[in-house]
Amino acid sequence: MGKTVTVRIDDATYERIKAAADAERRTISNFIENATMSYVEQGEFVDDHEMAGILKDEALLRNIKNAMGDIKSRKYRIVD
Q1: Buried b vs exposed e over 1-25: b needs ≥16 C-beta within 10 Å?
Q2: Which of 15, 17, 52, 79 has the most crowded Cβ, counting Cβ within 10 A?
Q3: Which of 40, 11, 35 is nearest to 23 (CA)?
Q4: HEC profile for 36-49?
């Protein structure tokens, strides 16, 4: 079941969001939901170009592998 979220924004921001939603023939609520999910998903994943760069970086891959080994053997500490 969907949840209702109240957001307080200034008039200028509302008008920009409303214009963008109207341009896409969406409700403001749907526009905000889609824009938010797009933002969240972009932060969670790397694109193909970025992943290719990661996979070519041997030093980075070695460090990740070592870090994963340290985590498995509990050789780490959490810093606040």
Answers
A1: eeeeeeeeeeeeeeeebeeebeeee
A2: 17
A3: 35
A4: HHHHHHHHHCCCHH
Q: Domain range spanning residue 60?
A: 46-80
Tokens 């290719």 map to which residue?
A: 52
Q: Which H helix or E strand runs over 55? A: helix 48-56
Q: Could you state, in chain order, the average pLDDT of each consecutive group of 10 residues for the chain (80 residues)?
A: 91 97 96 94 85 95 95 89
Indicate whether 15 and 33 sit together in one domain.
yes
Are 22 and 7 in a shared domain?
Answer: yes
| Residue whose tokens read 């008008």 | 15
